[in-house]
Amino acid sequence: MLRILILFVITSTLQVESFPILKDLHERKDLEFVLIDLLNVLTRDYEVTCIAIICDEVYLNVFGGPLFKRTASVPYVMTVVEDYEDLLSPNFVTLESLRAARKEGCNVYVILLANGLQASRLLRFGDRYRILDTRAKYIMLHDFRLFRSELHYIWRRIVNIIFVKYHKKILGVSKSRPWFELSTVPFPNPIKGVFVPRRVDIWKNENFYYKRPLFADKTSNLNGEVLNVVYLDHVPSVVVVKNNGSNKIGGVEVEILHTLAEKMNFKPKPYQAINAELHKWGQKQPNGSFSGLLGEMVNGRADVALGNLQYTPYHLELTDLSIPYTSQCWTFLTPEALTDNSWKTLILPFKLYMWIAVLLVLLITGTIFYGLAKNHMNLQEYKKLRPIQTKDDEGIDAKPGLYLFGEIINSILYTYGMLLVVSLPRLPTGWSIRLLTGWYWLYCILLVVSYRASMTAILANPAPRVTIDTLRELVDSKVTCGGWGTQSKKFFQESLDENTQKIGDKFETIDDPMKAANKVAQGVYAYYANSDFLKYISVTRKNSLKDSKGNSTNTTDFAPKIDSQRNLHIMSDCVVNIPISIGFHKNSPLKPLADVYMWRVVEVGLVEKWLNDVMHPIHSLETNEDELKALMNLKKLYGAFIALAIGYTLSALCLAGELTHWHFIVKRDPSFDKYALHLYYRNKNKKDY
Fold first, then answer.
1. Which sign does the torsion angle of CA 70, 76, 82, 88 carry?
2. What is the DSSP string of 511-532?
3. Which of 19, 258, 400, 627 could be joined to 429 by an S-S link, Cβ 3.0–4.6 Å?
4. pLDDT digit string, tens, across residues 383-394
5. In Å, what is the CA distance from 80 to each residue of 150, 240, 619?
């Protein structure tokens, strides 16, 4: 590649004579010698992965001599632009060359353009679309057109730069020789009105005069400079406490900011964006500008942003984000169902299939008892028909104890009675029935003990809550989903998951989280945010309702509204786990060193400790009502009263049936005589027999 580059340079130098304005400079090759020394210093003192050269035809002959031979063998990516090309919107070839330099990881840029306006437009384009690596090291020609006020924001982002300014020899002085002044951006000192570069060194007589480091680290010590920090009140990242009209801020990100300020030696100046409660993080306005916290970052008014910024492509496009210091579970705040299952207390100890098994065993065992009883009764009839009877057979009851199971209805009822641990009125005869009765009693004891234990646990523990804990359950429910910002809605709509897309179809944006919590309590809404913030608004709302109910003088209208509202529940399944970072302004030079310190803070566990400190007051305010719910009350015994009511109802129906049969069937029988009922029933039994 180097051979092809040199051939291209040689063929291009033939046109240099058409530019006489810098002929004297080109003849002496002074600029070439300066670049050789600068590049050698860079390759010797710093790790250079690739060098990107951007020049025009005026300065093309600088690279036609011994420059590549006298510098270290590192990769070069060279871009030659036309003098009429608008670099704020470069052509395809130039753009692909710039992208190739960024892709190859070039960390040194040499920009030699005769037109300062063209160079400024290149810097603006590279910064806007991140085509140029603003944290690389730059070598550029000194040009006053680069220092205009509308370009001052560039020099807050590109700080590792050397401006090369040429000074001609002084006429009339025999020992005077041309020399170069090497200057840089006065970072971290802010640019106030007029850009005044700071001299670094002087190159003269093919040597550096002061021998100073050309690219010293300017971010390790910011010399107590004041950095504007925009923040947004959002638990647990930033917690705002109002005290006597002033705001005192705390939270995880505030603690991280204080650590960075101490290590990098700067003074944070926190402030809130205009109408922060309304705009919050901010959105793109119809005129193309941004509001809220992001608006402060895009417009360059803030250096650092605190506000639970998600590490997403949307935020990365507008700002620079530090390495994530934590990962948050983003889910929904959902209402708990008001369905009361206390009336099912009697059937809750066993599941459906268990009840089916118990019922089948009852019917099968009752039928077996009936079959054994009929078999024993037939055996007794056979003994009566024998011609010779023994003394032992005399006085034997025709159905000794078999009347319990002699009829199928009685057999089922007595079998059911044993299941309820009700003893039989008489022990049946027949060894087959007796053995089956003993083993069936063992089965009943085990079953009843299990039922009682489960029933005790149900009555002693709090009533089960009917909640929404999965995306599928949320999709099947009728509640509307929502959260802050159109970005959340786009996240659900653009998802590849079917359930998530259905959430996006019914997703509604809402700005006020407390208003959203009230809608959730009404059972018509589910609010999307991180789990820590959902816990905060849930606890805050619960305690505010308690205070308002306790302090209200007339609670006759307010109390029923509170009682009718549902409890708030945080869905256990996470929709997504999102990394959270601190924001810096776009292409900020502070980010690399800040990432190093933040990584150390995360490794030693300070972030986890600060998170626990922030959430501890919230957890302490959360009232634990499980013990109160575990107490026995009348509501938990609804099942017993329902069972009693069912018994009363069935008994009343049976009584009504018996009375109907008595008045419409028995009394209308021609042989009925109310004065001789025993004769009527004796004749009735003979007829049935």
1. negative
2. S-HHHHHHHHHTTSEEEEEEHH
3. 400
4. 666 554 444 444
5. 26, 54, 63
